[in-house]
Amino acid sequence: MTSRFTRNTLLIFVTFLCFSCAKKDSKKVAEVPKPKDTMVRMEPYVFPSVKFEPNYLANKKGAIDRFVDKTWRDHDNLSLLVAKNGKIIYEKYQGYADKREGTTITPSTPLHLASVSKVITATAILELIDAGKLELGQKVSTILTGFPYEDITIQTLLNHRSGLTNYAYYTDQKEIWDKKNMLRNQDILDLFIKNNTPLDFRTDKKFTYNNTNYAMLALVIEKITGLTYAEAMQEMIFKPLGMKDTYVYDYDKHRKTAVPSYKGNNVEIGLDFLDAVVGDKNIYSTPRDLLKFDMARYSPDFLNPKLMKKVYVGYSYEHKGEKNYGLGIRMIEWVTGQHFYFHNGWWHGNTASYVNLKKEKVMIIALSNKYTQKTYKVRFLATLFGDYPFKMDEELE
Asked: What is the pLDDT of residues 65-85, one digit of tens each?
């Protein structure tokens, strides 16, 4: 009798304890930030209806056609789009997506954006700032556990003034990293902590373009959202904007299915130990999807206008010159007062150029998965839409 009572009492106690623990665990899960609590949902921006002058579109298309015919050959790989006020003026898709499979580049073929990925990573960070989850001047050490650099802030990562060493060169040393193993974002931070790695220069002393900054920003996004970088980008940007052909490359998941890249002589370029790092690169997209992204950045409901203004100003004036860098965007600042905003990219055989003519509301995007510097020449197309002092070939005049 006593034994049965004791067993029953014990069973009730254990059941109560398990129920209490389940409630506590449930509470802990509930406290983990969900996308809807953390992220501002972007909505595509619809430009007010604008009537173009008679023959405007035909004239622009004709000029772009002449530029393309002179710059690219039939054997080149190209994914190109030019749009104004959200209206596509010109598109061109040619070349192989995958030579082995015999597939060609189409409007829905996602190509590697290389460093143009930084523009999108920066946008996610700005969303979190606008949502009150981050501050531009916030120290990264208050976010990433063990981050060993007290003076580095979110802003000095965004504008490449952190002083962090370049992870690609750092981990290329055999005493630092075994290149038989894939390097990932957390590995970079762990190495900095373990080795007490010094900065290349004092934080905010000068500008040095450096992929490490955006690899750390990807970790910040993961920490704040409680999601992987890929999940966060999908929830914050790709899905809300209907960017259905855009994704973050996952080495384990996509290495056999992603569009490969080639040298200029059509030899396929393989992967290496750096191909699992995200944030600084590894977003695949199409020009049409990038147009949706570009349009969203015009929306007054996308980001606080005061915050957006901080994106398009230079932060590095320690040396004289026209070139500068904002928050995830490159710029040329001419003495005439005209500004040119863009970002280029290069990874393996992939090259990319994103041109954002804010004043004229024009987007120009060119991508290629076969190495060429011709991709970067699309900046010259800016002269068709505004007073940009580039030297344009006669064919465009």
From this structure: 999 999 999 999 999 999 999
